[in-house]
Structure formats: C-alpha cells, structure tokens
Description:
alpha+beta
Amino acid sequence: MLKPIILTLFAYFGITTIATAQSDLAQEVGIIFGPSTFQSDYGQRNNFDTNVGNNGFGVGIVHFINFSANNNRESFFTEHFKVRSELSFNQTKLEHFGEWVELEKRKNLVQHLRGMHGTSTLLNLGGQLEFSPFMKIHDFENTIGSFSPYISVGFQVSYYNTKVESRLGQLGLPLTTYPKYLVPSDGRQYGFSSESGIVLSGTVGVGVHYKLTTMSDLMFEARYQGYNSDWVDGLNPNKDIYKENKSNDSQVWFNVGYIYYLEF
C-alpha cells in the first residue's frame, strides 16, 4: 500500500529539484496547521452537532513555485498564478450525533450508535493551482501589509488508516452493532471496516495571503476535500439498501500558515 506514496514522494522531490534549478522561478516554503471537520457516515449529515463533534486537526508543509519573481516577461499567468505542492497529516476522531442517537436515548434502546466511535488518520500528498484575481504577484510582494485573496483547485493522493470500535464490545455482533452496519457492503463482510488504503481526492479552496515582511507571508484558508471512496471513515453501509449514505467521505480544513521566500 505504501509503494504509491513512496513513488509519488520521489517524483515530488525530483520535480522540486528541477524547478529550483530554473533561473526564472522563485521558491517559497511554509507550514500550515489548523482544525478540520469531517463529513462522513458518522452522525447525521447537515447536522450542527455532527459538524462540530466530528472534528480533527491537521498540519502540513507547503512549497510554492512562483513564476513572477525573477521573470521580466510579465504575463497574466505569471502575475496571477502559483503552483503549490503539499505534504500534510491530519487525524479526526469520529462519533455518531443527531436524530437517531437521540431516538436511542429517548426510547431507552441499546446504545449501538452512541457506543460506536472511530479514528481516521491520513497522510496526504498533492498539488494545487492558486489564482489571485485582484492583485498582481509583483505588486503584492512589494507592498508590506497588503492582502491578496485567492482561490485554488487541486488533487491529493492519501494513505489512510481507519479504526472502528464500540464501547459495547466487539463489533459484528447484534448485541454491539447497529443493524445497518451488519449488512455486507462493497466487498466487505460488514458495513464497517478497520483498514488502511490509498485514496484520491479533489480540493477546492479560498483564502488570502497577507504580506508580513519582505521575505514572508501569512495565509488563511478554508478548503474542501472530497474523496473518491466512502471507506475513509471506516463506515460504508450498503448503498443499495441505505440510500441516505450515498455520498463519499469529505472534509473541510481551516488552516493558517507561515510562508517564507527562498532566494536562489
């Protein structure tokens, strides 16, 4: 499972080395960190308690290829776009919230949902294209205290490890497991699975860069990340039966970052 990640890492560092050697490119590096919220089969979708309760934290290192600095051939692309690569790690603790958990409590039923909990851990590697529509990159770099809003799109490949457990005991038994998760799903014995694997995702973000000093920026960003799998959280009830669980897993990450400009 780790082979695709290792190969991608070698490719990433190779591309970075080649880019560094180009005289018309500038490099920026930084760190980002902040809270995230997971949208999954845990809890009730579009429920406030679920969105607030199923949260985690992420940290990452970022690298920017800046086409504007050291480039006298000014164009719309070089003055408004940057290529960003990222290696990040995030972990989320997951619980059930919402209507069905409250129903168990009101009717004094076995606390199947309330007892189920899990953890999803991801190591992510990917790239994004940042577009700053309102301010030229040269103007931003030369104006301390300025703001440059941006939007971004990209992709990531992630190695995920998920664990699903119950406070009632071993999952997979009627006494410990909510009925919908006992039905086979997507090649698994049950609608839950503690497993590891590789998953792809698309990202869309909005943020702003703040010019802190001549050689450094701060950044603030909110980013949506949608996965091509519904097993990232460890739960995936049979979609042919349980239509309410048709969506794949996703998360929103709110992060702040510190960016430093390298001189080559």
